[in-house]
Design goal:
Elements: H1 2-27, H2 30-102, H3 114-128, H4 140-145, H5 156-159, H6 170-183, H7 187-213, H8 222-232, H9 237-240, H10 243-246, H11 249-268, H12 271-287, H13 294-313, H14 322-338, H15 350-369, H16 390-408, H17 414-427, H18 445-465, H19 472-497, H20 501-511, H21 516-528, H22 532-545, H23 550-562, H24 566-579, H25 584-596, H26 600-613, H27 618-630, H28 634-647, H29 652-673
């Protein structure tokens, strides 16, 4: 060490002398500089020889000293470095964990910004752009065009105290009212509204997916791919393209908003996120009962992504779920206990429901993977109600494989388990635990399909990882792009099926040739188009497929009457009443048939039966008014027309008939005054 110090002092002295010489040279004239350079050259050789001699003499001694010192300090320095490195590693890891678990998703820090949202919006507009050409179809005629309650804001309070066709979704009904005030019978407005809901839901799912995959290098692009798959999956046409079903997206939007805010609460511990999430849950339930799974999904998030942090920072992490559980229980009590709104369908035994739903869940998985042959009349056909039925056995194997995979990947890959369980849990409200009238429907997959989209995105990422490094991104774009483009094409194609009632039911009977319901509705669409003969054949096919389809008998009877075949028409209507004597519409149509046959007493009895079963049947009141007017009973006729208008102020037929009957009354009075 002493030798090194002396050597450094000598080098510093030489450098100072050199600097002084260079400074001196720069201040002298060119001639003086040449003399100095000559002297420097002569001295240089001498100094070099002396330095070389000294260097050779000291070399061995310096080398030995340096090697000895290096050996003495090596162990000490290594230990210090390793200690510091270990301490720094622990500190950095703790900082990263703290940052990951307490900070919300920062789109800029993660390398994503507004471009993913623009891409998502672009593919949605492309996939659903042709839906704006579609007219009202299917239940749009019932819930939008033929729903007098949504035409007056004063009806909104009643939505919170009664059901609508066995459903308790008062906030959705209120949305109908606001939407009708905005759009009226303009289909463009309803399609725009549905598209915006779908866009917002996809944005939220992207944010949720991003928060789940932000720390994963393997699935860096999975969030965007999952969002794009969800955006264009053709299974969603029944919830996006169908204007009526589009209203159900309100509940999903509130569910996803509450869920994402809960994630932000877990990452930041900021109560504003928790409180806002909690406030969104009650309106979500009042918009759609399928959102009741929110507390379970919150627990699922904590189990997979927040368990360690919760154990460290929270003595009672379960306390966060308690308010949500209380809200869910309160909703159930309100609906079933206070309002007495139960199941929409009766007659399902637990055994039948269990076997049928096993097959239904397996078919849901199939439709998500292969979305072809889509139809609003998906069916489950079991030859026997036995667990050993081949369809049930195969479906059970599929479900066990899926659930087994969730268990297998529980600790190996939490994203896979989470995605699988998301699918099953969010589908539970549609599992007919409480009968909901429909066994299987594509629209029920809207929320559950996010689990599939995540799994598909992760699978594409793993495929890309098997490609050489330079081509990973290209491979991922190609694989996911092919599927996204294919799904978009199928969605555009499926949108065309919803162009109007006729195109919808023509495509439905092709995809579901064993559906009596589909043929019945096809006949109704044909009848509205004026093709009575084709309608009669469709109704007869519906009855052939299901002899208990009383609605098909009713529609067949009406078609006969319109075709001036009153006798077979009345016979078909009576067959319908024999199957279901509580269907008021059949009595209404029976009254029209008797009125056409000039049998007023039978017509009067039929109308009165219709009103007995449904006092709010404004169509029956209008028809009864025409019967009274036909036989000169103007006062009674006027009363019925006014009653019909009080039930539905927008009912144009009753308004027109009221004007006619009032004019007839005036004419009669004038005639009596001026004989």
């Amino acid at each position: 060490m002493g030798v090194e110090k002396n050597l450094m002092e000598e080098q510093r002295k030489n450098m100072n002398e050199a600097n002084m010489r260079e400074t001196f040279i720069s201040e002298t004239s060119p001639q003086e500089a040449n003399v100095l350079e000559t002297n420097r050259d002569e001295d240089s050789l001498e100094e070099t020889n002396v330095q070389d001699t000294h260097r050779e003499e000291d070399s061995l001694e310096e080398t030995n000293v340096r090697e000895t010192n290096r050996e003495e300090t090596s162990l000490e320095e290594t230990n210090v470095l390793e200690t510091n490195r270990g301490e720094a590693s622990i500190l950095n890891e703790e900082k990263l964990q703290k940052k990951d678990s307490r900070q919300p998703v920062d789109m800029k820090d993660s390398g994503t910004h507004y471009l993913p949202f623009l891409l998502i919006a672009a593919v949605i507009v492309i996939a659903y752009g042709n839906s704006f050409l579609n007219d009202f179809a299917f239940d749009d005629h019932i819930f939008i065009l033929g729903n007098p309650e949504i035409r007056d804001f004063s009806s909104i309070p009643t939505f919170f105290s009664q059901d609508v066709d066995g459903l308790y979704r008062p906030l959705r009904q209120a949305l109908y009212t606001f939407s009708f005030a905005l759009w009226g019978e303009n289909t463009f407005g309803y399609h725009l509204q549905s598209l915006l809901f779908h866009l917002a839901n996809t944005f939220l799912l992207f944010l949720i997916a991003h928060s789940l995959t932000a720390d994963s290098k393997k699935y860096k692009s999975a969030a965007l791919i999952a969002a794009l798959l969800f955006a264009v999956h053709p299974i969603h046409t029944e919830r996006v393209t169908n204007m009526t079903a589009g209203f159900d997206q309100l509940g999903i939007l509130l569910f996803l908003g509450a869920y994402y805010l809960f994630i932000l609460f877990r990452k930041t511990s900021k109560m504003k996120f928790f409180i806002t999430s909690l406030l969104l849950f009650p309106p979500a339930l009042l918009a759609s009962e399928e959102t009741i799974t929110l507390p379970i999904m919150m627990l699922l998030y904590d189990l997979f992504f927040f368990r360690k942090e919760a154990e460290k920072s929270m003595k009672q992490p379960w306390a966060a779920y308690l308010p949500f559980v209380i809200i869910a229980v309160s909703y159930v009590f309100l609906r079933f206990g206070v309002l007495d709104i139960g199941a929409r369908a009766q007659g399902y035994t637990p055994h039948t429901t269990f076997l049928t739903m096993i097959a239904a869940f397996a078919k849901y998985i199939w439709l998500l993977i292969f979305p072809v042959g889509l139809t609003i009349q998906q069916g489950i056909y079991l030859k026997t109600l036995s667990f050993f039925e081949p369809t049930v056995l195969l479906s059970s194997a599929v479900l066990l494989l899926a659930l087994g995979s969730a268990v297998f990947f529980w600790k190996r890959n939490s994203l896979i388990s989470f995605s699988i369980l998301w699918f099953f849990i969010t589908l539970l409200p549609m599992a007919n635990i409480i009968p909901i009238q429909v066994v299987i429907a594509e629209r029920y997959l809207y929320l559950a399909s996010f689990g599939f989209s995540m799994l598909a995105a992760m699978a594409f990422s793993r495929i890309a990882q098997a490609i050489p490094a330079a081509r990973k991104t290209i491979a991922l774009v190609i694989v996911s792009g092919i599927v996204i483009i294919t799904f978009s094409f199928l969605t555009i194609q499926r949108n065309s099926d919803w162009r109007d009632d006729l195109t919808l039911w023509q495509s439905t009977v092709q995809a579901s040739p064993r559906s009596s319901f589909a043929y019945d509705n096809l006949g109704f669409a044909l009848e509205r188009k004026g093709n009575i003969k084709a309608a009669l054949r469709a109704f007869q096919k519906a009855i052939e497929l299901d002899s208990q389809n009383y609605q098909a008998y009713t529609n067949l009877g009406v078609a006969y009457v319109k075709n001036n075949q009153s006798t077979p028409g009345i016979e078909a209507l009576n067959r319908s009443l024999a199957i279901n004597p509580a269907f008021w519409k059949t009595y209404n149509y029976l009254g029209l048939a008797y009125q056409q046959m000039n049998e007023p007493d039978k017509a009067l009895a039929a109308y009165q039966d219709a009103l007995r079963l449904n006092p709010l049947a404004y169509e029956a009141r209008n028809n009864l008014g025409t019967l009274y007017g036909k036989y000169g009973r103007f006062e009674l006729a006027e009363g019925e027309f006014k009653a019909a208008l009080s039930l539905n102020p927008q009912f144009a037929d009753a308004r027109y008939n009221l004007a006619l009957i009032q004019q007839a009354k005036k004419s009669t009075q004038n005639s009596s005054e001026n004989p």
